[in-house]
């Protein structure tokens, strides 16, 4: 069974700093089905990145995704106050269908 | 506007039942697979069930199989989740989300969630 781990668990940054969030899979996964979601406090999750590197509609270009195989990253190039929340990586599988989420990285702004 | 709106949550005793609904608007509902994801208080996201655009394909996570039933009515642009034999550990916010099976682009639309308290 696929497991996703995320690091760090929590990160605290000043506005304008760069954040790099990591996601590691317990086995090689298809990049086409690796996504990142942002969940602001009290809100539903929002898709940021799909297919490991593609930004979803309306997502600022300071969010970027990368990686392959077992290791993936979400980079926020210039962090802003509205980026506070929890960021989840996610892998979709199709044999059989399954949707695995990582435990999340909490982002604080100093 | 593309939108999903959940309803049907509430307070229920252990062993009780609830039926959650998710109504879609602004897109062709029958073209998309749909999933239910829940989030227990202070915890992360957990996928619990999915149904393909063609209703033949239905899947559940182990913890709810045999207790929860997913269904959809494409004519009414609606997704449902019947919850039975509820346990305290089923307490969570339940979200519906859509998935494009033909061209995967993530879980790109989510509802606002409905809260189930057992």
Give structural notes.
- The complex is a heterodimer of chains A (110) and B (118).
- Chain A is 0% helix and 55% strand.
- Chain A has strands spanning 4-7, 10-13, 19-25, 34-39, 46-50, 54-55, 63-68, 71-76, 85-94, 97-101, 105-109.
- In chain A, a hairpin with a 2-residue loop joins strand 7 and strand 8.
- Chain A is globular and about 40 Å long.
- The mean pLDDT of chain A is 95.
- The termini of chain B are far apart.
- Chains A and B meet through strand 4, strand 5, strand 9 and strand 10 of A and strand 4, strand 5, strand 9 and strand 10 of B.
Layout of helices and strands, plus pairs?
The complex is a heterodimer of chains A (110) and B (118).
Chain A: E1 4-7, E2 10-13, E3 19-25, E4 34-39, E5 46-50, E6 54-55, E7 63-68, E8 71-76, E9 85-94, E10 97-101, E11 105-109
Parallel strand pairs in A: 2-11
Antiparallel strand pairs in A: 1-3, 3-8, 4-5, 4-9, 5-6, 7-8, 9-10, 9-11
Chain B: E1 3-7, E2 10-11, E3 18-25, E4 33-39, E5 45-51, E6 58-60, E7 68-73, E8 78-83, E9 92-99, E10 107-110, E11 114-117
Parallel strand pairs in B: 2-11
Antiparallel strand pairs in B: 1-3, 3-8, 4-5, 4-9, 5-6, 7-8, 9-10, 9-11
């Amino acid at each position: 069974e696929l497991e996703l781990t995320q690091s760090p668990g929590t990160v605290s940054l000043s506005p304008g700093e760069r954040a790099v969030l990591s996601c590691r899979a317990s086995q090689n996964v298809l990049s086409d089905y690796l996504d990142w979601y942002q969940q602001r406090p009290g809100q539903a999750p929002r898709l940021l990145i799909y297919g490991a590197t593609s930004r979803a509609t309306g997502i600022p270009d300071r969010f970027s995704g990368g990686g392959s195989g077992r290791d993936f990253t979400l980079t926020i190039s210039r962090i802003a106050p509205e980026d506070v929340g929890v960021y989840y990586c996610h892998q979709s599988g199709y044999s059989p269908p399954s949707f695995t989420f990582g435990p999340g990285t909490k982002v604080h702004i100093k | 506007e593309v939108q999903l709106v959940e309803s049907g949550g509430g307070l229920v005793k252990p062993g009780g039942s609830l039926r959650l609904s998710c109504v879609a608007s602004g897109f062709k509902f029958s073209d998309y697979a749909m999933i239910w994801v829940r989030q227990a208080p202070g915890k992360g996201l957990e996928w619990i069930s999915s149904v393909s655009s063609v209703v033949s394909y239905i899947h559940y996570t182990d913890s709810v199989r045999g207790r929860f039933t997913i269904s959809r009515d494409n004519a009414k642009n609606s997704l449902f989740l019947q919850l039975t034999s509820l346990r305290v550990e089923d307490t969570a916010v339940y979200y519906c989300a859509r998935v494009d099976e033909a061209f995967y682009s993530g879980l790109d639309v989510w509802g606002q969630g409905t809260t189930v308290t057992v």
